[in-house]
From TrEMBL:
<comment type="similarity">
    <text>Belongs to the acyltransferase 3 family.</text>
</comment>
<dbReference type="GO" id="GO:0016746">
    <property type="term" value="F:acyltransferase activity"/>
</dbReference>
<feature type="transmembrane region" description="Helical">
    <location>
        <begin position="228"/>
        <end position="248"/>
    </location>
</feature>
<keyword id="KW-0808">Transferase</keyword>
<keyword id="KW-1003">Cell membrane</keyword>
<keyword id="KW-1133">Transmembrane helix</keyword>
<feature type="transmembrane region" description="Helical">
    <location>
        <begin position="289"/>
        <end position="307"/>
    </location>
</feature>
<feature type="transmembrane region" description="Helical">
    <location>
        <begin position="55"/>
        <end position="75"/>
    </location>
</feature>
<feature type="domain" description="Acyltransferase 3">
    <location>
        <begin position="12"/>
        <end position="344"/>
    </location>
</feature>
<feature type="transmembrane region" description="Helical">
    <location>
        <begin position="254"/>
        <end position="277"/>
    </location>
</feature>
<dbReference type="Pfam" id="PF01757">
    <property type="entry name" value="Acyl_transf_3"/>
</dbReference>
<feature type="transmembrane region" description="Helical">
    <location>
        <begin position="198"/>
        <end position="216"/>
    </location>
</feature>
<feature type="transmembrane region" description="Helical">
    <location>
        <begin position="168"/>
        <end position="186"/>
    </location>
</feature>
<keyword id="KW-0472">Membrane</keyword>
<keyword id="KW-0012">Acyltransferase</keyword>
<feature type="transmembrane region" description="Helical">
    <location>
        <begin position="134"/>
        <end position="156"/>
    </location>
</feature>
<feature type="transmembrane region" description="Helical">
    <location>
        <begin position="12"/>
        <end position="35"/>
    </location>
</feature>
């Protein structure tokens, strides 16, 4: 890619990052509101629950796609030494710092009892919790993805090697991209307390490999998406209809394979292509309001769950104000969403003021 085109590309990818983090926080924020709205439980056939899952579940796939594109377009040319150095400073160190911080808590979640800020009983318990939380990504519930992301970084040289095999490289990458259709991820709600699943790693490797594949020649490959936009939209719509149908009918698991997991992968991969192309089409006229959200995406990801927990008691009266239902659900959901994002960004700003460039190693911004 020539230098003239690079800023525009980075602009639309930056906007897609903002879109991705909003999607991720959206499902969590409205899940909190729905949990309170339904008397500390989830009704899996509730239209609001189904809508929240349909629109935003599996949005972490967007992050894997972004990481793959960034590697091919920006990071590969800088060499693996700088690649891994940047990931150590910008991902691993803030993950370690925040894991050590949040490991002082020993959350109790046994519906209807939810005590997110119960403390560890002693120092030994804290050390054990900190170690396990770091390995398995359990200090905060969104942290499950960070060990997966580290795995993606570790297999990057292999994926890059496969991508560059002249005769079979593209075919091998396409097989890896398609693997999540056959190998299902383990859903967060189904995870054991400390569990790293190889199937989940493979699942997100598919999305990461797709990002690497598109990033090798983004102009050509996103032009192909643009030419086939109707097909991408149709597949996204059909997979969405299928998701609603199978959710209502409670059809999902066939042994260790999840039909819903495969459908969500198809849906979110199609939406990735659609949304990236839409942002690419507007060139330098990217939405200005998405820029700060995208710039603070990592700190929002790292901190939003803490603020959601912090807001539970304050928003409980609104979530359970059924006299104005379902307006109270929407108001509570948007308050969970906007306040968790705003407070996370505020902490990011404070850390930047206090620690300058070192704040990236503490909170990711």
């Amino acid at each position: 890619m020539n230098k003239k085109n690079q800023p525009s590309f980075l602009g639309y990818l930056h906007s897609f990052r903002g879109f991705a983090i909003i999607n991720i926080i959206f499902i969590h924020a409205f899940a909190y509101a729905l949990f309170q709205y339904n008397n500390n439980s989830f009704d899996l056939k509730d239209p609001f629950y189904i809508s929240n899952e349909l629109l935003f579940h599996n949005s972490t796939v967007y992050f894997a796609v972004i990481s793959g594109i960034l590697f091919s377009v920006v990071l590969k040319s800088k060499g693996y030494k700088r690649f891994y150095s940047s990931k150590l400073k910008n991902v691993l160190l803030p993950y370690l710092f925040l894991t050590l911080l949040f490991s002082i808590f020993n959350p109790i979640f046994n519906p209807p009892i939810f005590k997110p800020f119960a403390l560890q009983p002693d120092f030994i318990s804290y050390l054990n919790a900190a170690f396990n939380n770091f390995i398995f990504g359990t200090a905060q519930f969104p942290y499950w993805y960070i060990p997966i992301l580290i795995f993606l970084y570790l297999v990057t040289p292999l994926l890059d090697y496969l991508m560059n095999i002249k005769k079979w490289g593209t075919l091998l990458m396409l097989v890896i991209i398609a693997l999540p259709l056959a190998i299902s991820r383990v859903e967060v709600m189904d995870m054991e307390e400390y569990q790293l699943s190889l199937s989940t790693m493979i699942y997100f490797t598919g999305a990461y490999a797709a990002g690497i594949y598109f990033g090798v020649n983004p102009e050509k490959r996103f032009s192909w998406v643009k030419k086939n936009m109707v097909l991408f939209v149709l597949i996204a719509l059909l997979s969405s209809v299928a998701l609603v149908y199978f959710q209502i009918k409670e059809i999902n698991k066939f042994g260790g394979w999840s039909l819903m997991s495969a459908l969500y992968y198809i849906q979110k991969m199609c939406l990735s292509g659609i949304v990236i192309v839409l942002f690419k089409n507007i060139g330098d006229r990217q939405p200005h309001w998405l820029n700060p959200v995208a710039s603070y995406a990592f700190v929002i990801y790292f901190l939003h769950a803490f603020f959601l927990d912090l807001l539970i008691e304050s928003l409980l009266p609104l979530s359970t104000l059924h006299e104005i239902a379902p307006l109270n659900l929407f108001f509570a959901g948007f308050l969970f969403l906007s306040l968790s994002i705003a407070l996370s960004m505020l902490i990011g700003r404070i850390f930047k003021k206090l620690f300058g460039k070192f704040s990236k190693m503490l909170v990711g911004v």
